[in-house]
Amino acid sequence: GKENVDSRHSWGRGAETTRFHTVNVAQPVRFSRKCPTGWHHYEGTASCYRVYLNGENYWDAVQTCQRVNASLATFTADQELSFILAQEWSLEEKAFEEEDQRRFWVGYQYVITNRNHSLEGHWEVAYKGSPEVFLPPVPKFGIPMSEKENVFCAQFQYYTSPPLRRHGLHSWYAENCYEKSSFLCKRSQTCVDIKDNIVDEGYYFTPKGNDPCLSCTCHNGEPEMCVAALCERPQGCQQYRKDPKECCKFTCLDP
Fold first, then answer.
1. Assuming Cys at both sites, which of 35, 170, 171, 209 could form a disulfide with 39, CB separation 3.0 to 4.6 Å?
2. pTM for the full model?
3. Model confidence over 33-63: pLDDT tens digits?
4. How many Å apart are CA 114 and CA 122, to the nearest integer?
């Protein structure tokens, strides 16, 4: 909300002066993104993404994503890949891999169907029930493959150099699923309150933004049916500061 203390005069019967005092005129609010801290929001898929740069094998990475209501990422279109390439994932935490490139576990597996002269096979989505997704091109293979292995796990290679990423350069690898690697989790957008708590569908909450006096209902990751409290300025205080996360809480700055 915007503070606007305004005195207006109008003349009533008998030339009496009536004073109208307008306090905290409500303004339109732009809500911040619908992802927890550390996650990146992409409007095109209404999803949140996070790279975990500590190294885990594929199966451990699956469990880590599941613990935060996510799964290893699959992709629906080139635009989504462009979004992933545009992010500065390497700045978020200590990296497990080399500085010039990263490889992330993602939610695909490569199934070998023929071992005659080359490793022929096809990509599959790792989780049944995933929505319509884009399947990667023919992969590069990482470390020498065991003849016993018929299923390999997908890694998406990302370059840390911005010029390379701007040109869309990336690669797909089929790797031994027990190798350790960084990984990319993806989850549906959600409601996040002003104190960065996750809010369940249908519950009231105060969205992240500039107004701690809003109360909204969470619906499909969006704040809806919002109502606002209007606060009077603190009495007997000329200069004051509003608490950015507590409704109608002020600190007086007068001497």
1. 35
2. 0.63
3. 577 778 888 888 888 899 998 889 999 999 9
4. 10
Q: Which two tokens stand for residue 150?
A: 């018929």
Instruction: Using alpha carbons, select from 126, 140, 121, 138 the residue that is nearest to residue 73.
Output: 126
Retrieve residue 154's tokens.
């997908």
